Amino acid sequence: MGQAPHFDFSNVISKSDVKALAEADEQEVVAEVQEFYGDYIAVNPHVFSLNLLGCCRGRSWDPAQLTRTTQGLTALLLSLKKCPMIRYQLSSEPAKRLAECVKQVITKEYELFDFRRTEVPPLLLILDRSDDAITPLLNQWTYQAMVHELLGINNNRIDLSRVPGISKDLREVVLSAENDEFYANNMYLNFAEIGTNIKNLMEDFQKRKPKEQQKLESIADMKAFVENYPQFKKMSGTVSKHVTVVGELSRLVAERNLLEVSEVEQELACQSDHSSALQSVRRLLQSPRLSELDAARLVMLYALRYERHGSSGLPALLEELRGRGGTDRYRKLVSAVVEYGGKRVRGSDLFSPKDAVAITKQFLKGLKGIENVYTQHQPLLQETLDQLIKGKLKDSQYPYLGPNTLRDRPQDIIVFLIGGATYEEALAVFNLNRSNPGVRIVLGGTTIHNTRSFLEEVTAAGFRGRSTDSSQVPRSSSRR
After folding, report:
1. Rounded to whole angstroms, how far apart are CA atoms 242 and 183?
2. Residue 118: predicted pLDDT
3. pTM, to two decimals
């Protein structure tokens, strides 16, 4: 006879489901039924995703996605053994609705959530992506975020099959901090540092093999070195993988002129000189090297930043987009993105520094040198969490669900973004955890976005923009 079956569920199983299972087990062969709370994807040590794209219809939840998100979030809480107090973004109806659904599960399953009390209760903060539509539109320059933006990470896998001259064993590679030491050590470093670190690693090997020394001056040299030394390739499949990935990123940066594009993106996101910004965008729109996506994202950023400016150049920029040829889908998406995350919708002041201290910080940051020109932007989440840690996050904008409030500053924080988080926000949380000993923040989202998947999210929500063309943004392999 075979072994008696064991059933393991990744979330809470209802009594009615257990009853149905028992009734179906006429031979009484089921030995055990267990609940293991793992109904989510652990992305980084402090980041999780539910792999859900298109969670809302307009400003309201898709009912099936709300159920799934509630399940994923409660499984996360149970696996971390947290029974949190809940705060939510007041300007977002979906945030309030999810907060209520999670609270209902905690109340209903109170025995499961009866964990040992801590001095300061944990806190769940529920936010809405539409409060910051800027962050998912920006090109990225730290390793993990850049790989997702340019190549797409899908459950830790990267499809490299379209890379020119790619070898068979590198058509799909896995990037996981858990079993890739180089990736774990470099995922939050900027692009220039990654290339240097790979070069150092390879030169260390060459020192041990003096006969095989050769100059490594460029990414091409490194790729040639790896390909020409099977022994090295065997010893260091990891390095081979990262040389290939970094080489492809370098190729795309050059081909799409992304250094110049990113500089203008940062100007749009962080500065407030309208005349200069408009001139920069118009200049880049004339470039034949600019991809259709990059042209559209510059216009989207301009439209969000200068939405109500008296001398808006948006109509002219939309005409220039049309004049570049291509389809009408990205032109439509400009107004769709403003409809999704424009000033009328936002509960926060996304662009203006809040006080003199913030203005001074921004000024000093600008003086730090040219190396920061591509990473000036800080996501809104960074400021929100900073205020939360300091006990200064306004109850009027982020109320508690229910009568109780925290008297002390929170130490255990789970922040969840409806509509998807980004790897730039994951980096912000990583840095906040590092710079605030005693505080532990976990970031989650319905998905992890890059620009393409974010535009899919906007389209799926029904924000299609004002145009006669019915085409949509193309599907991407970027959901997490």
Report:
1. 8
2. 82
3. 0.85
